[in-house]
Amino acid sequence: METRPATTRGILALLSDFGLQDVYVGVMKAAIAQINPQLTIIDITHQIPPQNIAAGRFCLLSAYAYLPPKTVCVAVVDPGVGTDRRGVAVEIEDRCFVAPDNGLLSGILQHSEAIAAVQLDRPDYWRTASPSATFHGRDIFAPVGAHLANGVPLEKVGTAIDPRSLIRWQIPPLKSTPTEICGCIQYIDRFGNLVSNIPAASVAGKSWALKWQEKKIPSGHTYSDRAVGELIALIGSHGWVEIAVSQELTAKSSGL
Q: Do 202 and 117 fall into the same domain?
């Protein structure tokens, strides 16, 4: 097995649905540290709703542009763990993603083409040649990610596959007319904001409102542009049109 000195200071980003109550995240990081304790680790989030590939897809897409060049990202939302679904490592622009091939990477792949991809079929780069059937994050994905961040070339950790064969999980496409754009909700954040798949560019420089379940929701610039407890449509920091309740937590604490 080819490795680089453990003093390599690569960057490894982590995303999962493991939560923070159990030991899963800590154990995954311990597996990484056994390979190189000098790696810089960025926790994107570990609070993806359990087995929610769609939420993982959106959060990866939202974080992607902020990851430093040459970052290796290990993403684990894996309802099919232990089955014959593939584990993959994918080079996209100047970053690498290690994940189950279940659509988790589809948001990024919709915006950026994969340069190369491999199937993770080389146990020399796993924690053990007999991985747990329920914890590939610890036994396969995290160790492979650590080796990649430590300088091991992509082609060493698996067999090359056609990037076009990667599973792409599709959300309903936008439908547009000269006066209307019809989209869907692709994510709900912890504040309860409903994030659509309508990009900011679609409404930029226009006077617009949003129609949701026969209700017309006026647009605004900030969450405070409407009275406390009222609905507002605006562009979120992620660059998508979203529906929010103005100062929702304030409204709830006030009994509104």
A: no
The label of the residue with tokens 């609905």 reads 231
C-alpha dist (Å) from residue 249 to 17, 22, 202, 212, 246:
25, 28, 29, 21, 9
pLDDT per position in the chain (256 positions), as tens?
Answer: 655 555 567 999 999 999 999 999 999 999 999 999 999 999 999 999 999 999 999 999 999 999 999 999 999 999 999 999 999 999 999 999 999 999 999 999 999 999 999 999 999 999 999 999 999 999 999 999 999 999 999 999 999 999 999 999 888 989 999 889 999 999 999 999 999 999 999 998 899 999 988 889 999 999 999 999 999 999 999 999 999 998 765 444 334 3
155 and 237 share one domain: no
Rounded CA-CA distance 95/111 in Å is: 14
Structure token pair of residue 230: 């009222």
CATH code of the domain covering residue 49: 3.40.50.10790
Pairing of strands 114-119, 215-218: unpaired
Q: Would you say residue 151 lies in a domain?
A: yes
